[in-house]
Amino acid sequence: MRDDGFCEGVELKREPTVKESLYCLGEILGFDIEFVLSELDETETKEAKEDIRKVFIKFLKGKAEWWMLCEELCSYEDREEFTIGIFAHLLTWAEEKGII
Fold this sequence. Notes:
This protein is mainly α. The protein has one domain. Helices cover 57% and strands 0% of the residues. It has 5 helices and no strands. Helix 1 (18-28) crosses helix 3 and helix 3 packs antiparallel against helix 4. The longest helix is centred in the middle third of the chain and has 20 residues, at 42-61. It is globular, with a radius of gyration of 14 Å. 15% of the residues are buried.
């Protein structure tokens, strides 16, 4: 629990893989991952995927805010708010995968 009374994040049993992170961000959270990576060469794409994974892990742990994911993946203005329904879907997926 943070000083402001909000939950810090979730405790991870393991960190999600790059593939799992990109799946969750694209299929559950609705980011257009292909568009984000479309202008990059192979080396840049590999580095970008790992950077995206790191921000996603920080987000899960409560060390990064929703807007930080949006900044990494798109314009914040292009994203809708992070709702409790989206959060519930994210947690269900993470639990099924043994991440939390």
